[in-house]
């Protein structure tokens, strides 16, 4: 079967999300927003099963002057260092 341009359907453009710089404590809400926006089953499963340690770190990071931890990096720049015990 030949495929022509008329056979190809296009998706509507994704809603553009304007976000200020991501702060440490924004990680969980940011990931939840992405989950709702893109509705990707694999991504949903991954963020639905976050380790409790990640969530605790996200909560601890609310005072960035005291806790300079950027948990966003743990999701998108994996590290082999022990971050919680």
TL;DR of this structure?
InterPro entries: DUF4765. This protein is mainly alpha-helical and 85 residues long.
Strands, count: 0
Low-confidence stretches: none
Number of helices: 4
Structure class: mainly alpha
Fraction of residues in H or I helices: 40-55%
Rg from alpha-carbon coordinates = 18 Å
**Strand portion:** under 5%
First and last CA, distance: 58 Å
Q: What letter string, H or E per element, gives the SSE order?
A: HHHH
Taken from the alpha-carbon principal axes, the silhouette is globular
* Nearest-integer average pLDDT: 68
Report on the biggest sheet: none
Describe it:
This is DUF4765 domain-containing protein. This protein has 85 residues and is mostly helical. It has a domain at 20-76. The chain has 4 helices and no strands.
Give the topology, please:
Elements (H helix, E strand, L loop, with lengths): L26 H12 L2 H8 L3 H9 L11 H5 L9
Give the key terms.
85 residues, mainly alpha, 0% strand, globular
């Amino acid at each position: 079967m030949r495929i022509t341009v008329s056979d190809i359907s296009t998706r509507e453009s994704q809603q553009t999300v304007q976000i200020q710089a991501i702060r440490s404590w924004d990680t969980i809400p940011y990931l939840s927003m992405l989950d709702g926006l893109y509705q990707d089953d694999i991504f949903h499963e991954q963020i639905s099963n976050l380790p409790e340690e990640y969530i605790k770190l996200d909560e601890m990071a609310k005072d960035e002057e005291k806790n300079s931890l950027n948990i966003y990096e743990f999701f998108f720049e994996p590290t082999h260092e022990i971050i919680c015990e």
